[in-house]
From TrEMBL:
Transmembrane segments: none annotated. InterPro entries: AKR_Detox_Biosynth, NAD(P)_OxRdtase_dom_sf, NADP_OxRdtase_dom. This is Aldo/keto reductase. It comes from Saccharothrix espanaensis (strain ATCC 51144 / DSM 44229 / JCM 9112 / NBRC 15066 / NRRL 15764). Gene3D superfamilies: NADP-dependent oxidoreductase domain (3.20.20.100). GO terms for molecular function: oxidoreductase activity. Keywords: Oxidoreductase. Residues 13-310 form the NADP-dependent oxidoreductase domain. One of its GO terms (cellular component) is cytosol.
Length: 312
């Protein structure tokens, strides 16, 4: 377990992404994945009110609803750190960070999850049209009411994250304790100003798309066809650099007797500021490839080899 930023949340090194629940994983499959993750020692589940509004016939909240049913069915709320998000759900006009949106969205999420509090509540994306004072004051109302334990940011620039932290300090409002951003072995734009801002503030990061939409599982290879809704996004990494990364991942994974996916996640977990990479699984078979990342530690030279392979 590792402490998430300045919060009191002790989280597993692998956060289970809930974006597939109610989308490409039905309720039974989702329950099985959640059961297996918890049994392996995981405790950190990430979702959002917008999951999975993009699917035909969906309006958002499907993932939260399934997680809520699972929590009630298993009676394990006290063993799970639940993170969800607000600010991207176009249905109902909840795609902003206004005070009324946050208040309404939080109640909807609490109801769907069937819980009396959210452990970590993210601003899912920045909202340049709403003063940060208004957004943070709305989060403050939730924290003071005991409905939210901690707040965090997702998809913020370094400038806007630093600004929000300064507003919170000045106004005595809740500070973001973590950042969720796109980051993995083949997408490293987080390194630099954004990572420096996170480190300077004592925050932690929980990267999404940690496996590059599945590319870093190793199943995407030249001449191989993968049946997945993410195949197009993952296949774009099949270039000289991507193949070089896969080659080193194969070698390091073999040395540890583990999976390529777990090795890629372990590299990410070893990066400065990273507390818990997020990865999702539609089946327990897919999850099994991820679970070694909960305690896999790479040697310094292995981390350096992977880093070098992904540069250029």
């Amino acid at each position: 377990m590792t402490k998430l930023g300045s919060s009191d949340l002790d989280v597993a090194r692998l956060c289970l992404g809930g974006n597939v629940f109610g989308w490409t994983a039905d309720e039974d499959a989702s329950f099985a994945v959640l059961d297996a993750y918890l049994a392996a020692g995981g405790n950190f589940v990430d979702t959002a009110d917008v999951y999975s509004a993009w699917a035909d016939g969906h309006s958002g909240g499907e993932s939260e609803t399934i997680i809520g049913r699972w929590l009630r069915a298993r009676g394990n709320r006290d063993r799970v750190i639940v993170a969800t998000k607000v600010g991207m759900l176009e249905v109902g006009g909840l795609d902003n960070l206004r005070a009324d949106t946050i208040a309404a969205a939080a109640e909807n999420s609490l109801r769907r999850l069937g819980v009396d509090h959210i452990d970590l509540y993210y601003a899912h994306q920045d909202d340049l049209g709403t003063p940060q004072e208004e957004t943070l004051a709305a989060f403050d109302v939730l924290v003071r009411a005991g409905k939210v334990r901690h707040v965090a940011a997702s998809n913020f620039t370094a400038e806007r994250l630093t600004s929000a932290l300064a507003v919170a300090e000045r106004e005595g409002l809740p500070k973001y304790v973590a950042l969720q951003q796109h980051y993995n072995l083949v997408e490293r734009s987080y390194e630099g100003g954004l990572a420096e801002a996170v480190a300077a503030a004592g925050l932690s990061s929980a990267p999404y798309w940690s496996l590059a939409r599945g590319f870093l599982t190793g199943k995407y290879r030249p001449g191989v066809t993968v049946d997945s809704v993410r195949a197009k996004g993952a296949s774009k990494y099949l270039d000289e650099r991507g193949l070089r990364v896969l080659g080193v991942l194969d070698e390091v994974a073999a040395a540890h007797g583990t999976t390529v996916a777990a090795t890629a996640l372990a590299w990410l977990a070893a990066q400065p500021t990273v507390a818990a990479p997020i990865a999702s699984a539609r089946t327990t078979g897919q999850l099994a490839d991820l679970l070694p990342a909960l305690d896999l530690e790479l040697a310094a030279d292995e981390i350096a080899r992977l880093t070098a392979a992904s540069e250029g």
